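Exercise: predict the fold of this chain.
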Amino acid sequence: MTIRLGTQLVQSAKLAKQFIEAIPHAQALGLELVHIGQGQAEITMPYKPELVGDPRNGVVHGGAVSAQMDTCCGAAVMCHPDGPSGTATIDLRIDYMRGANPGQTITAKATCYHITRNVAFVRAVATDEDVDNPVATATGAFTVEGL
């Protein structure tokens, strides 16, 4: 995991990491925080047969991808330099482009690009090994708490 700059940011990044590690669904999905800092987060989810939505083709269920992207977006908000100590999802729109290739790790990358007094705005993308062909994209709004 990469943590960058400033005591407040390091503390926010550590808090986000601890939060993700404590979420039961994150553990069940095998989510791993691999980068966090400056309003950006990256979380991987390994391929697991129990996450498959269609046994005929072995594609991971969209709900697992949705949970991964939501968690990644929240982490990006929490580590933004002007970010809150806590956050919750207000709205998350996910556009699924294709099924992830069976057997491949899915990587979600999120960027918190704007924060107001009450709302943080985030964009995210999820890919498998074909990084030029997204599995899904997302835009979201999250609460700003503790500023």
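Check your answer against the key: The helical segments are 7-22, 24-29, 62-78.
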